[in-house]
């Protein structure tokens, strides 16, 4: 599943590909359960911004100051491709048709990606730790005495209410680098090892600079292999690490010494 770094890369790609292009329509694949998008503009531009695990597409009318905000999540495999109109990928579920002969396609083989017209970001997602770090820390400290933080730190780090953008591979890499018992209650772990929060800022940015991770079904929109990814991924997917299925059903990788 694409995480914070991959969403940043996705936003970069959309902004780069759409920088000089105007669009005229949106077509939804009827097999996808997502809602149709009514487009009142005859000519519009597209820009993108990421926040944690969410992406916002701004569809701006070229003849007025009106903008439609399309809030998106990528699911397990969602990514964008700019292609010629006659080469629309098979699993394209939203196709933004450009003036000329190009289209921006939201491609999602597993169909878990979602979208909706919205005024703002999802309310129950916390701040992005890379661009809203102070708010991110404040949000966690404000809730640290709640029952949520009595759960193991490795589980709480999957809760997007607090750790927006942190997912399966990022939590494994962060906790491994801190060298903290991942089964320790979250409140205790954060109070004893505050660098956990610092790495929620640093590690996603490292992953972003490397080009993100081609993890399972996610495809880098630039079709580039990440640089030095094997050197970055110290824990996740490492055959020498221990693993368990957490209460959310996700496989968690960790240092086997914590089994003792």
Task: Show the helix and strand layout.
Layout (H helix, E strand, L loop, with lengths): L3 H14 L5 E6 L15 E8 L2 E8 L5 E7 L5 E6 L7 E7 L3 E6 L6 E4 L15 H11 L9 H4 L11 H11 L7 H7 L2 H16 L18 H4 L9 E4 L5 E4 L6
Antiparallel strand pairs: 1-6, 2-3, 3-4, 4-8, 5-7, 6-7, 9-10
Helix pairs in contact: 1-6, 4-6
Largest sheet: 4 strands, antiparallel
Oligomer: single chain
- In angstroms, what separates the terminal alpha carbons? 30 Å
Q: Write out the strand line-up for the largest beta sheet, numbering strands in chain order.
A: 1-6-7-5
Helix content: 25-40%
By secondary-structure content and strand pairing, the structural class works out as alpha+beta
Overall pLDDT confidence: 93
SSE order: HEEEEEEEEHHHHHHEE
Return Rg in Å.
19 Å
Count of DSSP helices? 7
- Strand composition percent: 15-25%
* Low-pLDDT windows of residues: none
Total strands: the figure is 10
How would you sum up the global shape? elongated
Briefly say what this structure is.
The chain is of the alpha+beta class and 260 residues long. It has seven helices and ten strands.
């Amino acid at each position: 599943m694409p995480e914070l770094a991959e969403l940043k890369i996705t936003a970069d790609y959309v902004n780069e590909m759409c920088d000089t292009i105007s669009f005229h329509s949106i077509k939804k694949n009827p097999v996808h359960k997502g809602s149709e998008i009514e487009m009142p503009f005859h000519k519009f531009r597209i820009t993108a911004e990421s926040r944690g695990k969410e992406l916002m597409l701004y569809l701006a009318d070229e003849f007025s100051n009106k903008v439609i905000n399309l809030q998106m999540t990528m699911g397990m495999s969602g990514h964008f491709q700019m292609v010629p109109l006659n080469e629309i990928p098979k699993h394209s579920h939203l196709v933004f048709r450009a003036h000329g002969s190009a289209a921006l396609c939201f491609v999602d083989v597993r169909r878990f990606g979602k979208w909706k017209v919205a005024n703002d970001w999802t309310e129950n997602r916390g701040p992005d730790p890379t661009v809203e770090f102070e708010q991110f820390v404040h949000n966690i400290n404000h809730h640290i005495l709640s029952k949520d933080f009595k759960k193991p730190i490795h589980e709480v780090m999957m809760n997007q209410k607090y750790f927006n953008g942190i997912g399966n591979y990022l939590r494994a890499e962060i906790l491994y680098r801190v060298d903290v018992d991942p089964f320790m209650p979250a409140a205790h772990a954060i109070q004893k090892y505050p660098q956990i929060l610092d790495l929620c800022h640093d590690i996603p940015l490292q992953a972003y600079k490397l080009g993100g991770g081609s993890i399972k079904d996610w495809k880098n929109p630039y079709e580039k292999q990440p640089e030095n990814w094997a050197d970055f991924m110290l824990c996740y997917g490492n055959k020498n690490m221990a693993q368990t299925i957490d209460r959310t059903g996700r496989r968690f990788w960790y240092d086997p010494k914590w089994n003792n």
